[in-house]
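Hello,

Our lab assistant flagged a job as stuck in the queue for most of the afternoon. It eventually completed. Since we weren't sure the result was trustworthy after the delay, we are filing this so someone can double-check. Below is the sequence as submitted and the structure that was eventually returned. Let us know if re-running is recommended.
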Amino acid sequence: WIIMTGFKTPADSISYPPKIVFSPSVEGYCNLFTTRSRQTDEYLASLPPAQGRCEQIAREQHMAVAGPSNYAPRFANSLIIAFGSTILSVGFGVMAAYAFSRFKVPLKDDLLFFILSTRMMPPIAVAIPIYLMYRELGLSDTRLGMILLYSAVNVSLSVWLLKGFIDEIPREYEEAAMVDGYTRLQAFRKVVLPQAVTGIVATAIFCLIFAWNEYAFAVLLTSGEAQTAPPFIPIIIGEGGMDWPAVAAGTTLFLVPILVFTVLLRKHLLRGITFGAVRK
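-- returned structure --
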């Protein structure tokens, strides 16, 4: 339904009963990527001929295209922040998970529970302290600040998931490698990591989905340069109120990267989810 609404006109999108059969239009996508202003017929007549479908649609509605909208920069922010935080959270998570899995850590169970408990706290409970801290550090409304924040939130999930995957890798593999002259770091890099690829991919997808869809921190801690797509899409306003075709178009495009990423890595994801389900 979202995909269909993206190809409706504003009138068709709010019609009752809802229209299943309608004349497709790219007006929603044009409104998503451009800003428009209503002008007089005399002013529109003085402009050069419309170039492109979006300008033609705007002229038909007695409007002129003023320039590009902020959707593309917000979409780019989502890509940078989501993938950046995923790389950091999985990178730190796999190292911490390896330490918890292979070494004797004092109060291991308590530490693991404390790490997991950080995800139980609602974002609003820490939003104000984080905002004040970021303001002092100059990280307010920055991509780096959001990457660090999402990484800190996701690292707990990463540690818990990856520890389970690493626990399933026999220690004998590393011991045999170290007998052959490998250091602990070399054994981790050349033996454990290749065996844990499926788990790493599965964890990365879960972390990416959280960072990609996160709304609360994004709406509370960003407003301009670092704002992501989730808080931007709901405020797409047309001349007569909410521009539902543009909102639907933005939502449809927002789903594409996650779907593509998941489809490309679906084999690793399925193996990762079922990894360790059958024990010897």
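-- support follow-up --
The delay was a queue issue, not a problem with the job. The result is valid. The beta strands are 34-38, 63-68, 237-238, 241-242. The longest strand covers residues 63-68.
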